[in-house]
Amino acid sequence: MATAPRLILVDGSALIYRAYYAIPANFTTAAGLHTNAIYGFATMFRRILGGRQPERGAVIFDAPGPTFREEKYPAYKAQRPPMDPTLREQLSHIDRLVEAHEFPLLRVPGYEADDVIGTLARQAAEAGMDVLIVSGDKDFAQLIGDRIAMIDTLQNVTYDRELVRKKWGVVPERFVDYLALVGDKVDNIPGVPGIGQKGASQLLEAYGDLDGVLAAVDQLKGKQKTALTEHRADALLSRDLATIDTRVPLALRLDDLGLKPPDRARLNALFRELEFYSLLAEEEQGGDEAEDDTPVTIVADPEELTRRLAAIDPAATVALFPVIDPPSAVRSPLAALAIAAAGSTEPAIVVPLSCAGGLGERGVQALRPWLADPSRRKVAHDAKALWIALRRQDVELAGVVGDTLLESFLVDPTKLIPHRIDQVIKEYLRRTVPPVKRAVSGKGDKALADLEAAAFAAWASKHAVAIAEAWPKIRARVVEDGQLKYLEEVELPLSWVLGAMELDGIAVDPASLNTMGQEFRERLAGYEAKIHEIAGRKFNIASTKQLGAVLFDELGLPVIKKNKSGYSTDAEVLERLAPKHEIAHLLLEHRRLAKLINTYTDVLQAAVDPRDGRIHATFQQTVSATGRLITTDPDLQRTPVKTPEGRRIRQTFVAAPGKRLISADWSQIELRLLAHVSHDALLVEAFSKGLDVHRRTAAQIFGCGVDEVSAEQRATGKLVNFATIYGQGATALAQILGVARKDAQGYIDAYFAAYAGVRTWLDAAIEGARERGYVTTLMGRRRYIPELSSKSVTDRAFGERVAANTPIQGSAAELCKLAMLAIDRRLREAKIQARMLLQIHDELVFEAPIAEVDAVCAIAREEMERAFPLDVPLVVDVGVGETWGDAH
Q: What DSSP designation does 220 have?
């Protein structure tokens, strides 16, 4: 069956305003042009296309000047403020952006964008086309039908007839009548005072349409009858104002809306002009950045390689780019190494190693002395991955003075997360590097290691050259921001420590994991059967739509909240329903078990390396904006602690024969840091005297003696303490505690009354961040917070939370890194065989021979408790066991 042609209609005016308010106002070019709306529009437009090119399309904007609606009703949209000049100056550039995408651009004087979109949608539907309107404007609900849908890309929701009915209680054909009754504050459409969404939908269901409602007004009673009688004219006017005109005279036809591929060269030129380097597109052959004729030198002779390495200026800084296949450097062979000297006119060289026809061990032997020479200055992007790959070849890497990955992160941790090499090159060199797919194009599913060097040499050499050129620019920013000492003393040496941890991995008991996984599946099946029994039928429990129908339509449970797609069935809803019906409790247990299976038992089993029976997770230094280390492949930091199942999962991590696992965990490190930075007398006293700070906070907020605090009150005090760090307000705290918002606000007020120093520090931290644009940690790392200057209240609130918690969480991350470096140094100095294996939040895990356990425990405790001088003592809990669960 042939697919109907599709027309995509983008509500450009709505997109502009969304972009303008979503991106902070301090987005400007070096010349001072505001670009927040342009950048937001560009990224949203890219998301709309999603890599697919529709057959027909157009972007429609409101035309300047009055429309027929203002002529009919001068108050229409009159409450809206005039367009901000910083937005107005961006409009012409947005037009250029649309044109570079080769999209028709429409403005029709006297009509709004809605009317032009409505006219085109009607014409296309009548011509047998499928129409997709891209907008978040509810007014388009009146157009939705069998061939017309609307997608709200911000919410990722596609509206069809059924979703319109569920959200507003009326079918699309009655949506204008609905607006005539309820009005529209956004457009200043009056409606009928006193009639809300529920009343309007009930009236229309009973009497058909607005005319039917007005004709039956004598049958109504009370306020509805009075309102409709007195405001009959307002209702009719509102219907006229809300109705989209689908008969706008247009100078073009549907055939004129055919689309061509975007003009990549024009787009890239515009992105460079606007300094949107992260949006630069990869060029196709023949584009302005097609493959050039830069010579590529493949050195496949060991003697020649030795000569070339010796010929490199000893004072030069040399960029290294390893050719490694995914998923990680731990498991993948080093196919080749690209080497480029910064500032050199000589082309990069590519040394084939484990690839097809590579030098193998002969190449390794030739490289070994040069790579291990600390006097040869080297830089890389993710030097840790290179270090690991070389260690697997028994090659030491020394002389690394820079890492564009780490340095980009230190310059601005949030802008380019995760700071991939293509992101960094776009940002600092204002050009692109070819993707790996360019190297393997036409090679089927072959890995890089299966190819000959000629297939990927150009790709690899371009990356090496780009690193060599970008590094001086990034280093200049690092120095300018005062981050060089921290880079050289913490992040760079830490990457070697983390590399060793990745290589070592941690052993697991696969039999225990398998048994646990089977048990969890059996329990999951039991929950599923019981849920289906209560529901009276089988359905897909994972489907929000099907589950919502069962809970609210069929079982008649009270609707807690709705979202854009209908009923919400999230955890909060189920927790509130659990006391009312057994099925909600079963659903919560089903989800918990499913998460354990999908996130832990299955993932951990798949992650075990069959060669050594150990899991080799990757430790990421540039993923968390606070500087916290993140584990991936798999994510061990999400391993649960407090539940019985979580403890069982930790029991599957085991020590090697003759060894023990050691867990060293800071006690309340973030609250101790809060005491240090705030200098709050009460908080400092509590930690200095070893008091129970959660119990003390509970006594303050409940107005009782410390000895009178119950276990439940202490738990509340603990949550209030941590709510301070995470910047949670009364609404969020109320949801967590399950209390009324006013009670939660009372707890917060009582907390700040007791800990006045904390309130003073928080206010100063937020105000300082607003003035400078960033916050700093104990060691001077910066985190920029553009949200603080956003026009969005939600964004600004987020920025304030970030300003409050980053100095705490970021400093905690630094303390952990300092301790890891000190412990690693002590272990090596003492020639102890023990190894540091994991860093999980505030916990370090070691594996040590039984004879070394006491020494390692002492070293870990000493270095963790003196990682950084604070006004309050750091306290570390240390445990030992044959499994991680026993030790923790």
A: -
